[in-house]
From TrEMBL:
The keyword Oxidoreductase does not apply. It comes from the Bacteria. The keyword Transmembrane applies. Belongs to the binding-protein-dependent transport system permease family. The chain crosses the membrane at residues 21-44, 82-106, 118-141, 161-180, 257-279. SUPFAM superfamilies: MetI-like (SSF161098). InterPro entries: BP-dep_ABC_trans_perm, MetI-like, MetI-like_sf. It is found in: Cell membrane. Pfam families: BPD_transp_1. This is Carbohydrate ABC transporter permease. Gene3D superfamilies: MetI-like (1.10.3720.10). Keywords: Cell membrane, Membrane, Transmembrane, Transmembrane helix, Transport. Residues 83-279 form the ABC transmembrane type-1 domain.
C-alpha cells in the first residue's frame, strides 16, 4: 500500500480540523503572500530596467536587464551623505530612547512616588496627538532658541534627534514598564541581599532579564526615525537631509527617474530588513512577554 493510500485509510483524529479549513487556510495564505510580494517584485523588476522601459507600459518580465540604476543612484543625488545622516540620527535617537526609557520604566515599575499615576497617564496620552500638531511649536522653539543662545538645533542632526525622542520615548517607557512588571520582584530582592543598590541591580539583573523587551523598543525607535518624513523635511537642510527626504531628489522638473527610485528604495530598506531578521526572535518575545504577567 502506498503512503498516500495509507494516509487516506488512517482514521482522522476527532480534534483534527476539517479538510475544507486546511484548504481554505492554504488559499488565503497564498493570496496574502502574493499580495505582500507583488509590490516587492514590481520594485525589483523596475530597478533592473532602463528608464525608457519603466516610463512606458509596465511589463511583468523585463525585456532588458541592467544594473546601471544601482550605480547611478549615488550620482544623481548625494545618497551616501543621506545614508550617513539617517544612520547617525536613527542610531542616536535609538540609543537615547532606550537609555532614558530603561531608567524611567524601572522607576515607574519598581518604585512608588508622588504623581506616578499622573506621569504614566501623561506619557501614554501623548500618543493620541498627531505628529503634525508638534511641528510648528518645535520649529518656533528651535528657531528662537538658536537666536537667543546660538545653539543651532534647527537644521541640525541634534535637533532632529531631539524631535524623534518626543515620539519614541513615550511608547518606549510604556512598553518597558509593562515588561519590567512581568519580571519577578524576587530578583531585585536577591540582588539587594547580594549587596547591589537599585542602579546596580537594574543593570546587572533586570536589564539582562529584559533583553527582549529592550531590543523591541530599540527596533521600534530605530524604524520610527529611519522612515520619518514630515519632520525631516522641515527640520533639515541640504547637509543634514535624511534618506526618507532625499529620495525625493530623483524627481526633477523634467522627469522622474523611476528605476533609480526603486533601486534606492531597495538599498534603503536593506539595513531595516537585515536588522529585523537578525533580531526577530528578540522582537517577538519582547512584544508578547511584557503583556502577560
Amino acid at each position: 500500500m502506498s503512503d498516500t493510500a495509507a494516509r487516506a485509510a488512517r482514521p482522522r483524529s476527532p480534534m483534527a480540523p476539517p479538510r475544507s479549513f486546511l484548504w481554505t487556510r492554504r488559499i488565503v495564505l497564498t493570496l496574502l503572500t502574493g499580495f505582500v510580494l507583488l509590490p516587492v517584485y514590481v520594485m525589483v523588476s523596475s530597478s533592473l530596467k532602463p528608464l525608457e522601459d519603466v516610463s512606458g507600459k509596465f511589463e511583468w518580465i523585463p525585456s532588458g536587464v541592467t544594473l546601471s540604476p544601482y550605480a547611478d543612484i549615488w550620482e544623481t543625488v548625494p545618497l551616501a551623505d543621506y545614508f550617513v545622516n539617517s544612520i547617525v540620527v536613527s542610531g542616536a535617537a535609538t540609543v537615547l530612547s532606550v537609555a532614558v526609557a530603561v531608567l524611567a520604566a524601572y522607576a515607574v515599575s519598581r518604585h512608588t512616588f508622588r504623581g506616578k499615576r499622573v506621569f504614566t497617564v501623561t506619557v501614554l496620552s501623548t500618543q493620541m496627538f498627531p505628529g503634525i500638531l508638534f511641528l510648528l511649536p518645535l520649529f518656533l522653539i528651535y528657531v528662537n532658541l538658536g537666536n537667543a543662545t546660538g545653539i543651532a538645533l534647527f537644521g541640525s542632526r541634534e535637533g532632529l534627534v531631539l524631535t524623534y525622542l518626543t515620539f519614541s520615548l513615550p511608547f518606549s517607557i510604556w512598553m518597558l514598564t509593562g515588561y519590567f512588571d512581568s519580571i519577578p520582584r524576587e530578583l531585585d530582592e536577591a540582588a539587594k541581599v547580594d549587596g547591589c543598590g537599585p542602579i546596580r541591580a537594574l543593570f546587572r539583573v533586570i536589564v539582562p532579564a529584559a533583553r527582549p523587551g529592550i531590543v523591541a523598543v530599540a527596533v521600534y525607535a530605530f524604524m520610527t526615525a529611519w522612515g520619518e518624513v514630515l519632520f525631516a523635511s522641515v527640520m533639515t537642510n541640504d547637509t543634514t537631509r535624511t534618506l526618507a527626504v532625499g529620495l525625493q531628489g530623483y524627481a526633477t522638473q523634467n522627469d522622474v527617474y523611476w528605476n533609480q527610485v526603486m533601486a534606492a528604495s531597495l538599498v534603503v530598506s536593506v539595513p531595516v530588513v537585515a536588522g529585523f531578521l537578525l533580531l526577530q526572535r528578540y522582537l517577538v518575545a519582547g512584544l508578547t512577554a511584557g503583556a502577560v504577567k
